Amino acid sequence: MEYVSTGVSGLDALLRNKGFPAGFNIVVMGSPGSGKTTLGLQFLYHGCLKGENGVYVTLDERPASVFRNVSNLGIDLEPFVKEGRLAIVDASPIRTIPGEIKLGGISIGKKDFSLAALIAAVGNHVKNIGAKRLVIDSLTSFFIQYPRVAERRAAFLELLEGITPLRCTTLLLTELRYSGADRPYQFEEYLADGVIILRKYLKNGTVASSIQIEKMRGVDHDVEPHPYKFVIGGLEVYPTEKVI
Ligand SMILES: Nc1ncnc2c1ncn2[C@@H]1O[C@H](COP(=O)(O)OP(=O)(O)OP(=O)(O)O)[C@@H](O)[C@H]1O
Ligand SMILES: [Mg+2]
């Protein structure tokens, strides 16, 4: 098995210093503002620095606003976009009605937005720049068009089947719908190769954040939650500290 370094200080340590298994589809679930987008872009930024190109699919926010926010953390993606090492698929108009999405030069109205078109656009970008890393931000916006859970599950499986042949290591960002200790599982968790959970919790009356690798198929990994913080460079995980 090959591995891909995460780019997040302290996170590789939870993966026995190896990183993510290459080619895995990994769901990153988190509460609002927990750092899903930051983690995803940090992963892509690190890849670009190492010569592993990436594709970022944004469905939640306009690329300009996403880039501006993470540049405050010292993650400057613009040069990589200009050099053709990072490609952006802007599907963010899906959030608005009627909305029009331009994918690979083709405009698609929201109602006609097709999963096949999204998969084709991602595939074209991955092939054009030889991407090894892919981030989809977020599944929540992607699921809007499928009101029923059974449809969502089917659409998610179709998305996974569409992107798996691209052989990228992929982070699929999504909301954590319930955060309690005895929360019900989300269907995404069963279908992905790996699951990472970002949570907020109260510690001595202040809000802190924890990261937990819930699953990573076929590999040994830490299963406990550990604290993390936002620092210059993105998220920083403290693998030897526990969450109390
Ligand atoms: N410079 C900074 N210093 C400290 N914290 C920051 C900084 N920049 C961003 N943050 C924190 O990061 C959060 C946003 O991070 P990010 O956009 O990665 O989260 P997200 O999980 O993707 O959010 P959403 O649910 O909106 O998609 C902010 O709410 C803030 O708490
Ligand atoms: Mg986000």
What keywords describe this structure?
30% helix, binds adenosine-5'-triphosphate, Rossmann fold, 29% strand, alpha/beta, globular, 9-stranded mixed beta sheet, 8 helices, two-stranded antiparallel ribbon
The strands making up the biggest β-sheet line up spatially as: 5-4-8-9-3-10-11-12-13
User: In percent, how much strand structure appears in the residues?
Assistant: 25-35%
Helix vs. strand class: alpha/beta
Q: What is the terminal-to-terminal distance?
A: 34 Å
Write up this protein.
With 244 residues, the protein is of the alpha/beta class. The chain has a single domain (3-237), classed as P-loop containing nucleotide triphosphate hydrolases (Rossmann fold), CATH 3.40.50. It has helices at 11-14, 36-49, 63-71, 78-82, 115-129, 139-143, 149-163, 187-191, and strands spanning 3-4, 20-21, 25-30, 54-58, 86-90, 100-103, 106-109, 133-137, 169-175, 194-203, 206-216, 226-231, 234-237. The strands form three sheets. A nine-stranded mixed sheet has the order 5-4-8-9-3-10-11-12-13, sandwiched between helices. Strands 1-2 form a two-stranded antiparallel ribbon. A two-stranded antiparallel sheet has the order 6-7. The mean pLDDT is 92. The structure holds adenosine-5'-triphosphate and magnesium ion (MG). The site of magnesium ion has 4 residues, from helix 2.
